[in-house]
Amino acid sequence: MPYPPLGASTAPRDCDLLLTGGHVLTPDPEDTGRTVTYEDGAVAVDAGRIVAVGSAATLRRAFRARRDIDCTGRAVLPGFTDAHTHLFQSLARGLGDGMAIWPWLRTFMWPYAIAVTPQDARVAVRLGAAEAARAGITTVVDHHYAPTDTETVLAVADAIEETGLRGAVARGMLGDRTAVAESRGLPTALYRYSTAEELRITAECLASRPAGSRVQVWPAPLNLSYGDPDLVHGAVEQARGAGVRWHTHCSEGAKDPESYLDAYGIRPVAWLEKEGLLDTRATLAHAVWLDEEEIAAVGARRASVAHNPVSNASLASGSMPLAALRAAGATVALGTDGPCAGGRQDMFEVMKQMLFTQRLATLDPASVRCEDALTAATLGGARSTGAAPGAGLVARGAPADLAIVDVSGTARHAPLNRLGAHLVHTAQSSDVVMTIVAGEVVFEDGRCTRIDEEELYAHAREHAAALTRRADITDHTFQGVSPC
C-alpha cells in the first residue's frame, strides 16, 4: 500500500532501511541538468522502493527502520546505469592498448570474441558484474556477442542477476554476411548464424527473459555499418512486439558511415529514419560520426545515445556531438564500453572524461557541467533503458537503487565545497561503500553480498590464462601492429 505523505500521520511507520545524515543528491526530474542536494538528509526504503526523502530529523521521527544506516560524511545518490558495456571482455583487461578502433577490433577483440567459450563468458560476465556492483552501478546494459547461443545468453543474464544487479543482455547479432563486412575484412568466424537464425535465437531468449524481468534480453544488431539491414528490421520489430528496447553500435569509427554510404547510398542513421526504425526504444552506442541530418533525426524520434567517452578517447575514435544531440532532444546516457576499452567499470571516470573530452572538442569549459554528467549517468541512463518511473532519481516512489559514496575519508575529499563537482572531479569507484538495488544491499564493507568473490577471482584467472592462449593474444601480440 503506498505510503501517505509525511505529516499525514504522527505514528512512526515501519520501513526496511533508513539512510540518515548524508548528503542526498538527486537530478532534477525535468532533466534540466541541475541537481538537488539535501544536507543532513535521509532516505527511507521499504519493499524495494524509496518511500520518503527529507531531513534526517524529520525521517527519524517518521520511520522505525529494520536497519538504520549512518551516512554521515557520505553522499547518497541514484545508482548508476552503465548504458553500454561488454562484460565478457573482463578476462582480457589490459591487452590491445595503443591501437585505433579498427586494428583493435581486427587484431585483438574479434579473435578474442571468437575464442570465448560459454564457460568463459559466464565467469567473465560474473566478474564484470561484481566490479560494477562495487562501483555503485545498479543497472547494466551488456551488449553481449561472445558467444550468443540461447543457453549462453540466458546464463549471462543469470550471472548479472545473481550479483544483484538489474539490466539487459543486448544480444549482439550480425546475420547474413554483407558486402561491407566483406570489403572491410571481418572474420567469417564472427558470422555464426544467418539472419533468420539470429532472430529465432533472440525470440527464444526474449521468451525466457521478457519485459519486466530484472535482467531482460534485448535484440541488438552488433553494428549498423556492417550488419545485415534485414536483421535490423527484424530486431526493431521484435523489440516493438516484445515491449523492450533495442541496442546497436552506431558510427563509432570515422569509416563506419562512409562505408555504409558507399554500399547503400545513404548514411546509417538516415537509413533508420527513412525505414521508420528510429524510435524511442533505440539506444545508439557511441554515435560519434553523425551529420546534422542524423542528429536531428535522433532527437526528433527521442532515441537514446550511449556516450562512451573513455573508450572513445582510448581508441582515438572521436568525440560525440553531445551538445547538438542534447539540443535536438536525444536522451544521453553514459557507458563504460567494457573492461578492454578503458580498463575499469568506473562511472566516476566516465563522467569526468565526458567533461574533459567535450571541453577539449569545443574549447569551451562551459559547454558541459558536472551536473550534466551526473544526470547522464543516472537519470539519462535509466530513461534509456525504459526503467520504471522515478528510476535514476532519489525521490519518493522511485526504485530503491542507490549508491553511497564516502566523501570524507581521505585528503582529496577535503574540503567539500560543491558536491556535484566533487563527485565528478574527485570521487572514484573505490569510494563507493554501499550499493543498493531494489532495496537490497548488494555491496557493502568491501565485498559483494551475494557471491564468493575470492572463488570468482580464482576462476577468472584460470579462464583468462586459457582463453588468451587459445586466442593467441598476449601483451606481446600487438608489438609491431600498426596503431591506425
How would you portray this structure in words?
This protein is about 40% helix and about 25% strand. The chain is an alpha/beta fold and about 475 residues long. It has two domains: about 15-80 and about 395-450, Urease, subunit C, domain 1; about 80-385, Metal-dependent hydrolases (TIM Barrel), CATH 3.20.20.140. The strands form three sheets. Strands 1, 2, 3, 4, 5, 14, 15, 16 and 17 form a nine-stranded mixed sheet that branches. Strands 6-7-8-9 form a four-stranded parallel sheet. It is globular and about 70 Å long.
Key features?
484 residues; alpha/beta; Urease, subunit C, domain 1; TIM Barrel; nine-stranded mixed sheet; four-stranded parallel sheet; 38% helix; globular; zinc; Amidohydrolase; hydrolase; Metal_Hydrolase
